[in-house]
Amino acid sequence: MITAGQMRAARALLGIDQKTLAEMAGISVPTIQRMESSKGNVRGVVDTLTKVVEALDRAGIELIGDNVPSMATGRGVRLKEPEIKPTLPDEQGEQ
């Protein structure tokens, strides 16, 4: 599971907005908005949740669940080496 807080924190670590995350995951911006406004665990269609988690993973985000060995406790996100570099909104027109 992913929490709304984890989604917002992951976007902050990547420096991306909701539109960019939606594009990375292949879903709509309103869907990202609904997911991020959830209380606690994000609720939604499993396929949609999977798309978001996989997009974040490809961008270098490691989601940390409860009871997972870590230097800290609780849920969080950790920035890891990305497989791909996300295209930031100001870079989309440059090539």
Work out the radius of gyration. 13 Å
CATH architecture descriptor: Orthogonal Bundle
Largest sheet: 2 strands, antiparallel
What is the name of the CATH class?
A: Mainly Alpha
What is the CATH superfamily classification? lambda repressor-like DNA-binding domains
DSSP strand count: 2
Which regions are unreliable across 5 or more consecutive residues at pLDDT < 50? none
The proportion of residues forming helix, as a percent range, comes to: 40-55%
Report the oligomer. Answer: single chain
Query: How many structural domains?
Result: 1
Mean pLDDT: 85
Distance between the termini: 36 Å
SS strand fraction = 5-15%
The tally of helices reads 4
Q: What structural class do you assign from the helix and strand content?
A: mainly alpha
Task: Summarize the structure in short.
Pfam families: HTH_3. The protein has helices at 4-14, 18-25, 29-36, 46-58, and strands at 61-64, 76-79.
Describe the structure using short key phrases.
2 strands, 4 helices, 434 Repressor (Amino-terminal Domain), globular, two-stranded antiparallel ribbon, 95 residues, mainly alpha
